[in-house]
UniProtKB/TrEMBL annotation, chain A:
<dbReference type="GO" id="GO:0008115">
    <property type="term" value="F:sarcosine oxidase activity"/>
</dbReference>
<dbReference type="InterPro" id="IPR006279">
    <property type="entry name" value="SoxD"/>
</dbReference>
<protein>
    <submittedName>
        <fullName>Sarcosine oxidase subunit delta</fullName>
    </submittedName>
</protein>
<dbReference type="Pfam" id="PF04267">
    <property type="entry name" value="SoxD"/>
</dbReference>
<dbReference type="GO" id="GO:0046653">
    <property type="term" value="P:tetrahydrofolate metabolic process"/>
</dbReference>
<dbReference type="InterPro" id="IPR038561">
    <property type="entry name" value="SoxD_sf"/>
</dbReference>
From TrEMBL, chain B:
<dbReference type="GO" id="GO:0000166">
    <property type="term" value="F:nucleotide binding"/>
</dbReference>
<dbReference type="Pfam" id="PF01266">
    <property type="entry name" value="DAO"/>
</dbReference>
<dbReference type="InterPro" id="IPR006076">
    <property type="entry name" value="FAD-dep_OxRdtase"/>
</dbReference>
<dbReference type="GO" id="GO:0008115">
    <property type="term" value="F:sarcosine oxidase activity"/>
</dbReference>
<dbReference type="GO" id="GO:0005737">
    <property type="term" value="C:cytoplasm"/>
</dbReference>
<keyword id="KW-0963">Cytoplasm</keyword>
<keyword id="KW-0560">Oxidoreductase</keyword>
<keyword id="KW-0547">Nucleotide-binding</keyword>
<protein>
    <submittedName>
        <fullName>Sarcosine oxidase subunit beta family protein</fullName>
    </submittedName>
</protein>
Length: 95, 416
C-alpha cells in the first residue's frame, strides 16, 4: 500500500502508523450531560465498515504529520489523503 | 455410519462403495427453534453441543459459502491454553480439555496432536512474566513448565539462542498444547451435528433480521425468510456487518492477519515454537510444510489479503530465530479477517434484542477456542445464562469497566 502524502508525495506503508477510525478526531464534550456514555462510545464502538473508511494515519518515519486517509477496506484502494489538521480546522476546531 | 479402522478395511476390500456423504444438504425449513449464523468451527460446534449437551432440536446453521471456508480453514491450527487472566484461562483450559476428547466424541479424526508449545523468552523481565503466567495456568488446572536455555536447546538444537539482540534465555512449555487439523474440525462437527438432526444450510447468506417489539422473529436470507425463536450470530471477521442489520455498533474492528506455508520438508520441527521478542509462531504440518505467522497488518481490512511490510517482518523473525530456514522456500501465503475487539478478548453474550445472541471478537485466537466457544454459546442459547467459564465475555464490559485485557494494550485493537 502506498499513501500519497499531501506534502511529501507517495510514501510506503511501512513509514506510517495506524490509529483507527477518523471519528477519533471528534472528542466528545466533557461537560455534556451524557459525557460518560459519549466517551465510552468514543473509546470503544466503531462503525467498522466494509467499504469506504476514513481513518487516521501517523507519518512516524517521516514528517510526523497526522493524516486522514479515505480507503476502501475491501480493496485497499486509497481515494483521498488529507492533513488531519486541515480536516479539523475545516470542522471549526483549533481556531 | 460410524467411522472405524474396521470400516476402512471393509471399504478397502469392497471397492469403497459404502461411503456416503458426511452430512445432508437440506433445504431450509420455514421455521427453527435455533438459527446459528455462520458455518465455521464455532457455529458448527454450537449447533452440535445444542443438540448433544442441551438436547435441543430444530436447529439450523446458515452459511453464506461452504462450511469451513472461512477462518476455520485458514488459521495456523495451534491449540493451547497458556493464558493468564481469570476471565480467560479457565475458559481456554476448558477448551483444551474438550480438544483432548474431541475425536472420540465426534467419531472423527481431527489429527489432534499434543506436541507441546514453547514460548521463548529473551529477557529477565520476560522470564518473570512467564513465571507469573505459568503459575496462573497451573492454578487453573493447566500444565506449564519453565525451561532454561539448555532444556530448550535439547528439544530444538537448531535455534539461534545467541542472537545478539534477542538471546534465548529459556521458554515456557505447555506440553499438552499442540495442533489439530483445522478443516477436519469443521467437518467433524458438521457430520456429528448433522447426525443429531441439525440442518446445515450452505450458500445461504443472511441479509437482515426480522425484529418486532424488541424481539427476534427470524432472519432474511438469500434463500428466503427463515423464522426462528432464537438467533445466534457466530461470524467472527464479519460481525460488524451482520450485527449492523440489527442496528448494533460493536467494540470491534476487522483486521487482516496473514499466514504462510513453506514447501514440504522432512520432519524438522517436532512442536510449536513462538518467538517472544516479536510476534511469530511456527509449527510443521503432517504434510511437511512449515506453517507460520506473525502480527496482524494493523489497519481495518475486509480484503483477505495483506501487504508486503508484514510479510518481510515475519520472514525476518523467522530467520533470526531459525537460521536453518534461510534456504526453505515459501510456498504460499494468505490472509484472513479477524474481529479485533477493544480489549483483545472475545464476546459471548445476549444482545439488547430478545432472542438475538452474539459470539465474536475472537481476535486471532479463535481456533483453539472452537470446542469451548461452541459449548458455552450453546449453554447461553439454551439456558439464557452464561456458562461458568465464560462469565467475563460480556458485551457491556466496556461500559462497566470490566475489560479482560490479556496483553495490557488498552482499547487499541491493532495492538492486541
Amino acid at each position: 500500500m502506498i499513501i500519497n502524502h499531501p506534502l511529501l508525495g507517495p510514501r510506503d506503508l511501512s513509514e506510517f502508523v495506524y490509529l483507527g477510525d477518523a471519528c477519533l478526531l471528534n472528542r466528545p464534550d466533557w461537560q455534556a450531560d451524557d459525557a460518560l456514555d459519549q466517551f465510552i462510545d468514543y473509546g470503544h464502538t466503531r462503525d467498522n465498515p466494509a467499504g469506504l473508511h476514513r481513518e487516521l494515519w501517523y507519518h512516524e518515519q517521516g514528517d510526523r504529520s497526522w493524516l486522514v486517509v479515505t480507503r476502501n477496506t475491501v480493496t485497499h484502494e486509497i481515494t483521498s489523503v488529507e492533513l488531519a489538521r486541515n480536516v479539523a480546522r475545516a470542522e471549526g476546531r483549533s481556531k | 455410519m460410524r467411522y472405524s479402522g474396521f470400516r476402512v478395511i471393509k471399504e478397502a476390500l469392497t471397492g469403497h462403495r459404502g461411503w456416503g456423504p458426511a452430512w445432508r444438504d437440506p433445504d431450509p425449513q420455514p421455521e427453527y427453534d435455533y438459527v446459528i449464523i455462520g458455518g465455521g468451527g464455532h457455529g458448527l460446534a454450537t449447533a452440535y453441543y445444542l443438540a448433544k449437551e442441551y438436547k435441543q432440536s430444530r436447529i439450523a446453521v446458515l452459511e453464506k459459502g461452504w462450511i469451513g471456508g472461512g477462518n476455520v480453514g485458514r488459521n495456523t491450527t495451534i491449540v493451547r491454553s497458556n493464558y493468564m487472566l481469570d476471565g480467560n484461562e479457565p475458559f481456554y483450559e476448558f477448551s483444551l480439555k474438550l480438544w483432548e476428547t474431541l475425536e472420540q466424541d465426534l467419531n472423527y479424526n481431527a489429527m489432534m496432536s499434543q506436541r507441546g508449545i514453547i514460548n521463548l523468552m529473551h529477557s529477565d523481565a520476560q522470564r518473570d512474566a512467564y513465571i507469573r503466567r505459568g503459575n496462573a495456568m497451573i492454578l487453573n488446572g493447566a500444565d506449564a513448565q519453565l525451561l532454561d536455555q539448555k532444556q530448550v536447546l535439547e528439544k530444538y538444537p537448531f535455534l539461534n539462542v545467541k542472537n545478539a539482540r534477542f538471546p534465548v534465555m529459556g521458554g515456557l512449555l505447555q506440553a499438552r498444547a499442540g495442533t489439530a487439523r483445522h478443516d477436519a474440525v469443521a467437518w467433524g462437527y458438521a457430520r456429528a451435528a448433522d447426525q443429531r438432526g441439525v440442518d446445515i444450510i450452505q450458500n445461504c447468506e443472511v441479509t437482515g433480521f426480522r425484529i418486532d417489539g424488541g424481539k427476534i422473529l427470524g432472519v432474511e436470507t438469500s434463500r428466503g425468510y427463515i423464522g426462528a425463536k432464537k438467533v445466534g450470530s457466530c461470524v467472527a471477521g464479519s460481525s460488524s456487518k451482520v450485527m449492523a442489520y440489527a442496528g448494533m455498533r460493536l467494540p470491534i474492528e476487522s483486521h487482516v492477519l496473514q499466514a504462510f506455508v513453506s514447501e514440504g520438508l522432512k520432519p524438522v520441527l517436532p512442536g510449536v515454537i513462538t518467538f517472544g521478542a516479536g510476534h511469530f509462531y511456527v509449527s510443521q504440518s503432517d504434510k511437511g510444510g512449515l506453517v507460520f505467522g506473525g502480527n496482524i497488518d494493523g489497519y481495518n481490512s475486509y480484503a483477505s489479503r495483506g501487504n508486503l511490510p508484514m510479510v518481510e517482518d515475519v520472514m525476518e523473525e523467522a530467520i533470526a530465530m531459525f537460521p536453518m530456514l534461510g534456504r526453505a522456500r515459501l510456498l504460499r501465503s494468505w490472509g484472513g479477517i479477524m474481529d479485533m475487539s477493544m480489549d483483545g478478548t472475545p464476546i459471548i453474550d445476549k444482545t439488547h434484542i430478545d432472542g438475538l445472541y452474539f459470539n465474536g471478537g475472537w481476535c486471532y485466537g479463535g481456533f483453539k477456542a472452537t470446542p469451548a466457544s461452541g459449548l458455552v454459546y450453546a449453554h447461553l442459547l439454551a439456558t439464557d445464562t452464561p456458562h461458568d467459564t465464560a462469565t467475563a465475555f460480556r458485551l457491556d464490559r466496556f461500559h462497566t469497566g470490566h475489560m479482560v485485557d490479556e496483553k495490557g494494550m488498552g482499547n487499541q485493537p491493532n495492538l492486541h
